[in-house]
Fold this protein.
Amino acid sequence: MTDDLETTKPACGARATLIVTLTPVGTATNVARSRVSLHCAMPLGHKGPHLDPDHAEQWEGAHNAVPTLLRHEED
Ligand SMILES: [Zn+2]
């Protein structure tokens, strides 16, 4: 049984857009600082939320959806 050692399995490839926001000093308004495209690196057909290990983000969503995620960072 060598199937489990197959390294060319396709990745899930689901996508999402991550927008990182912050609140500048002296304001109460969140502003978008950066926009990142996430790609799921889990195997195709995996269970549970999608995961982009490069950006340490996970999300739920249909494979053909491209949800937008927000992450707030303190300055
Ligand atoms: Zn996925």
The pocket of zinc ion is lined by residues 12, 14, 40, 42, 46, 50 (CB under 6 Å). The mean pLDDT is 88.
